[in-house]
Amino acid sequence: MGLSSAELEVLLLSLKIALWCVAVSLPPGVLLGWLMARREFRGKALVDGFLHLPLVLPPVVSGYVLLVLFGRQGILGGFLEGVLGVRLAFDWKGAVLASAVVGFPLMLRAVRLAIEAVDPRLEQVARTLGAGRLRVFWSVTLPLAIHGVLVGSLLSFARSLGEFGATITFVANIPGETRTIPAAIYTFLNQPGGEVAATRLVVISVVVALVALTAGEWIARRTRRG
Amino acid sequence: MKAVLKSPASPKWRATQPRPFKRNSPVGGVRRLLNGKTGICCLLSALVICLPSSLAAKVVVFGAASLTQVLTEISAKARQATGLEVSVVSGGSGALARQIDQGAPADICFLANEKWMNYLEKNGRLESASRVDLLSNRLVVIAPKGAEFKLEALQGSAFAALFDGRLALADPAHVPAGIYAQQALQWLGWWPSLAGRLVPAVDARAALVYVERGACGAGVVYATDAASSSRVEVVATIPMEAHEAIVYPVALIRGRSGTEAVHFLEYLQSESAGGVYRENGFGVLPPKNLESDKASNNNPLTEGVYGIEQR
Fold first, then answer.
1. Which of the four CATH numbers 3.40.50.720, 3.30.420.40, 3.40.50.300, 3.40.190.10 does domain B59-136+247-280 have?
2. Cβ–Cβ gap B215/A89 under 8 Å
3. Contact at 8 Å (CB) between A174 and A87?
4. Is the dihedral of CA A205, B171, B228, B190 positive or negative?
5. Tens digit of pLDDT for each residue in B63-94?
6. CA nearest to B201, candidates B173, B159, B226
7. B200 to A120: CB separation less than 8 angstroms, yes or no
8. What are the residue ranges in chain B where pLDDT is below 70?
């Protein structure tokens, strides 16, 4: 079964968006995961609840909020376009933002749990041996929690591949720009006789998901051994 | 934050450590769990799970998304006038048709598109005799309020230069509103100059939202959707010959001919329902499929363009 050029375009776009989604959510995910695992501060429960909102809200709502904030007349969208010249609405970068927001709680939870599982005494020992806080984080906490970071990245990647509601609400369904695999499947399912084309895309996404999961499992095993 | 190293002896440090497991029998553990607050939570959850669903309505109407408003109003009126309980299920015509085809519990279906109605009829899901083309609709060009532009004539590719940003429409790949919009834009000669600036939305309502929010500089939507929004301005009404006739057929689902659904189908074609359609900007087609009405057209722009050459 060869891929048509249209299918290849949809697949590559989806992969590009998913990889960017992981790249964009990793730094804040690790930072906030560490913060939530290791620090006590006022309003922590509130912050935690806020960060988990995309998990509770229907993705359509998340997408609508993004549209209001990052549209051309939105507060942030106007700023980004006017000052930095970056346009998110109806652009593949907007699709990255949408799936990053929706997948962020998954990334955060995995990282946080992994960091919480790191024995704080090891960090304390490193501190008594004279390592700075940043060095402790890089050479003790992060290496010990790396499987959580991997799992978080994998979840974020998978969520991005399957993201539909927020993406189609925020950046619509523009062929070649924001038409990801789920959006293309949706389009085909709404055409009488589009079932075959939709099935092909479903098979493609299942294969991609299996490959990603197997690769993730393989990497995780290697890091555990090392 | 200060870098205070918590010593293993401090109670604060111990609080951060996971509690050691106690070696009790699992039954005892469960019983202890059910005694406290957790128990109350479990009990409440169990109660909520057992809540009965309340599909008390007698007549279920599957209606196209663009009909949501009118169907809600009409079913409220019908309840007052006749005591009929009606519940409205709305969605895209394609999705609804597929659900009905798979045996969804609909009594009446009221779609925005003849093709999907034909699909249902071909699959033997309808009481064919009950099928009526009831409503018509128009397409309009809209712009965000405050950012509207003047369209002197509906001619040529000058249109693309009139507005900033992109043009929202329902997805021309599958949504009826988008298919009509593409036909219209091609008929008007605007289509080629808009390449790369189109935003295909999930449905006409979503296209409307993009324009309302100023995310798109212009849009092509149903006249009825535009009329429902105070945040967009109608720049032009597209002439009816620019696209296939927009017809809303309604029919009874097969096997429902002896039920109360028949009364509601009659009510949908009554004069009092007709008032609701017109208030919301729909054209009501005369019975027996006479020629579509051109009476509801009172936009000076459209009257002026009948002379424009067809492309």
1. 3.40.190.10
2. yes
3. no
4. positive
5. 988 898 899 999 999 999 888 889 898 888 88
6. B173
7. no
8. 1-35, 52-57, 155-157, 288-311
